[in-house]
Structures are given as structure tokens and as C-alpha cells.
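Hi! If you just cloned this repository, the fastest way to understand the data is to look at a raw example. We've pasted two of them here, unedited. The first protein comes first, obviously.
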Amino acid sequence: MIRDITIGQYYPVDSVIHRLDPRTKLFGTMIFIISLFFANSLLCYLAATVFMGAAVKLSKVPFRFIVRGLKAIVLLLLISIAFNLFLTDGEELFRIGFLRVTREGAALAFFMGMRLMYLVVGSSIMTLCTTPNQLTDGLEKSLGGLKRIGVPVHEISMMMSIALRFIPILVEETDKIMKAQMARGADFESGNLIQKAKNMIPLLVPLFVSAFRRATDLAMAMEARCYRGGEGRTKMKPLRYAPRDWTAYGICVCYLAGVIVLSRL
């Protein structure tokens, strides 16, 4: 379960999506997320499925590797579906004891589950096809206008990219610590909820110690290299749009317009 988290990982392969400018990928991901909140019918989700399927195909990242990240949100997905299924008023379909399932609740639960899964898959595609350095440069360039009002854009972009990069590192560290503790007799599965929470202490303490140690090592490495933030820094590979980026922008805008139109039908 721990190793199934794919957000923050990078999958190195030569593809059209990998070669896109990071700003284009950020824009495309934002457009996809916005479209999911406009989607309110099967036609809208069919359009979203086609758009996402095309992105997965062009990225050349194995589909099994991408959807593996859904295993980490199974509990959240089930809770979301259950709340919408049983707590939504409307036309009653059937009862399960004191729980009432309505037509509106079933539709809302279905769409909410699809939306949550597509959000994870869409975000995973961006991080799998973009290195942390590219993501930092893309965020900094995209938010460059905020510098005029005193917003530390470079520092914010750096923190976000480091946080994303640390996700797979901490996941791997958690897996190693869990296996080491289980080899020493720790039990993370049996017992009630309170007992399971207590059993997590031998895992959380060394994980926090490891995280703080890595953060300290990173800070020392940045200071040793005389890192002073984004002011006056130059880029070895400055970002430049290519024709494929403008094509991708056009496809994303047309897709969002199509979803909005379908949601009005």
C-alpha cells in the first residue's frame, strides 16, 4: 500500500508529454481539474476519459503504474461514496436496514468517486512526466507576475517542488522502517482502532527523525552551494515554448469549452 503512492515520482521516458514545457503541463493539469468540477453528466465524464486516456497514451507511462496510485485512496474513496450514497435526499430506490439509497445519492456517489479517481490520475501524470527542477522552473515562470507585489515566487515554487519530491522519498523510508519494525515483532494490523494507532508509534518516531535529518542535510547542502534564492539567478536551460506547446494549449482550451457545453445540455 505504501509503495502504491505515485504522486511526486518521476518516470523517465521519451514522450510527447515529457517534452512539453512544464508550464504547459501545469496549465493542462489545472484545466483538467477545473473540467472535473464542471462535469455533471456521463457525456462530460466520457470527454474527460478520452482526454485523460490520450494523455496517458502520449506519456508512454504504463497505465498500471499510473492507476497503482489509486490504491492509496481506497479508504477515502469508499468514505466519500458512502456519505453521498446514504446521506443524499431524493427518490428512494431501496433500503439497507435503516440506510436509504436514493437515485440522486447513487448518481452523486458515482460522479464523486469518478472525480476523485480522475483527480489523482491527472495529477500523477503531471508529476510522472515532469522532473522536480522543471516543475520549480514552471511554477516560478507561471507565477512571475506576483513578484511585483512582493510575493516570494521562487521560494514558494522551490518549497512546493521539494515537498513533491519528498513524497516518494518518505514513502520509501516508511516502507523500510515498517519492514524493519515488523522483523522486530511489531504488529500494525491486529487490534482495534486505538490499538492500531498505538502500534504506529514505533513507525512514526523514526520516520519524523529521518524526515528532519533529511531536511537538515538539504539545508546544509544548499548553504554549502551558496544558495541565496531566486533574485539575480540565471537558468542554464531557460524555458521556451515550442509549437507543440501552443498546440497543447489549444487542445486544452477546446476540451474545457467542450465540457462546459456538455454540462449545459
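Ok, and the second one:
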Amino acid sequence: MRVTHLYRYPVKSMAGEALESTKVEYGGLAFDRLYAFIDHTPHRDGKKLTARQVPRMLGLRASTRDGEVSVIRADGAAFRVGHDLTEFVAATLGRPVSMVTRRDGESLHDAHDVLVLNAASLRALQEEWGKPLDVVRFRPNIVLDGPEVTAYEEEGWIGRSFGVGGACLTVVEANVRCGIPTLDPQTLQPDPSLLTLLVERHRQCFGVYCRVTQSGAVACGDEWVPLP
């Protein structure tokens, strides 16, 4: 079983970027969920803004280059982190926002450091649902696959530790899914039947959350190795 895809999402609830390699740090992949936006509409003032409230956030793509994060809109225009980005996001989403960073010590993940997804489980779920499933619907960090991989075997990994590249991860819990995977990543149109399927057949869970217990570099092709 090996890493086939790596993803990070420099701005929470925006589309992210595929990687060939990355540093896995204590707290998550380098630059993953480094920034988030805070909603300042009267009924949500001070709460994090996500695609659950504003699905079109997923239509903005966050990218990292030379240590700087930019947000790219559909026409290719890029806005770097800073005053112009905050103004752009506020105008695009039609609501007042401010930006926070996990460099201030606050975790911006929904739960734990790293989300791992088993590609065999994705194929099985696609067959159950009867429609194509793009892996990015589920916003994983690490995708695993291999000829020996069986669907949903990750459900038995809770509490176990694994080495991957130079890092070590401990599987903490299954990921209880919200409504974001119901949004088509290309059209942003929702299909609630996917969440209904997860609720009825999979306890609303898909993928597993991990805690980083040793930092290190990870690359596509690295083996996922059970630790004693």
C-alpha cells in the first residue's frame, strides 16, 4: 500500500493543490489550513466561514509558491495573502470577513492533523452510489492504494500507528462527514443523496483522521507501513 496522491488546502474551505511531496509537520502538512476566514455577518460574527455556509468558496483555489499563499479565481487572477485578498474574498462572497492564521497557535483543522483516504473505499463507495466520485470531494491529505488494499479496511486502523516516508502517524478516529462532499467540485452543485448513503450504510463516516507523532517528508510512492 502506497501514497498515490497528496493534497493540501492552504485556505480552509477553498480548493487546494495536488503535491508530489511535502513536509508533514506536527499539526499537519506544511501550509495545510494555514489560513481561514472569519465571518462578520451579524448572525455569525466571529465564527469561521466554510463552504458549509458559502459553497462558492470551493470555487476559489488556494496555492503555495515560494512560501507565499495566493488565492486564484476562475479567470486566473491571483490575490496574495494580505489586505487585497481579504477585500477580494469579502467582495466575492458578499459578506464582511477577516483572516486568521494557525501561526497564531489556533488549529484551523476540523478535527485532527491529517486526513487519510483509502482509494479502494472510494471505488466501493462510487459503486454503491452509482455515480462518478472525484476524490477531491472528500478533501483528503493522503490517498493510499495498492493491489492488496481492501475497501474500508481503514476502519480497523483506529489506534494503530503507521510510518510513511519520514513521518509517523497514529490513526485517531473515523471522519464523520458533513455536507461538503455532496458538492460537485467542478459545478458546486449539491447532491444530498451522497450524504444519505454515508449515513445509512457507513455511520456517516468516510476516511480516517490521524495525529502526527513524528514529522518528516512524504512523497507520492512512499509505502504506508504498519508500526509495532
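That's it. A detail worth noticing about the second one: The two ends are 17 Å apart (CA to CA).
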